[in-house]
Amino acid sequence: MNEADKKRFSNVMMGLSELSGGNLTPVGLKLFFATLKRFDIEQIEKAAHAILETRQYTNMPMPADFIEAIEGKVEDVGALEALDVLQKIKSVGSYESVKFSDPVTMAVIDRRFGGWPRVCELEEENEKWFLRDFASAYLSISKGGVVPKLTHLPGRIEIQNMDTPPDTGPRRLEVTLPLREPADGPKELEN
């Protein structure tokens, strides 16, 4: 959202406050805006309608309620990300490096499962346990607040290339050859 959206945002929040019997102050409104400004005003309005349709409580929804309405429950996102990881395991394999759009997903693979090649060792009969473990780790890491900024997850080829020193160019090869005597015997040196 930007400054031009403040009037629409204010109308949404004041309406919710009125429906919940609350009293939203200007300071509270500023806190809501600061917390939710990363979203478009259309997302805020859509989330407000979803909250009104599904909310079972009568108090004013908090910013976390809006974030959950927009992004989904962390548990659900983790389960969907786990399915995406399984799909990539089958389509990409352990040799290629991969990148996921969700930084939490990459952190889970790196921290919980030991990296991309290790997670690719998953056997098909253990997929249901993987889904459960992945969703649980996703929840823990996403609620922990600090997610490492990984650009990608290296595959086996990239990892092997990291362990191999770079080619430094042509090398000088020194070889000592044994001396051979001519077939007709050693020659005398002439003065």
Report what the structure shows.
The chain is an all-alpha fold and 191 residues long. It folds into 2 domains: 3-71, no CATH class; 74-163, no CATH class. 55% of the residues lie in helices and 0% in strands. It has 9 helices and no strands. The protein has helices at residues 6-19, 26-36, 41-54, 63-71, 74-92, 103-111, 116-119, 127-144, 156-163. The longest helix is centred in the middle third of the chain and has 19 residues, at 74-92. It is elongated and about 115 Å long. It starts with 5 loop residues before the first helix and ends in a 28-residue tail after the last helix. The mean pLDDT is 86.
Task: Summarize the helices and strands and which ones pair or pack.
Elements: H1 6-19, H2 26-36, H3 41-54, H4 63-71, H5 74-92, H6 103-111, H7 116-119, H8 127-144, H9 156-163
Helix pairs in contact: 1-3, 3-4, 5-8, 6-8
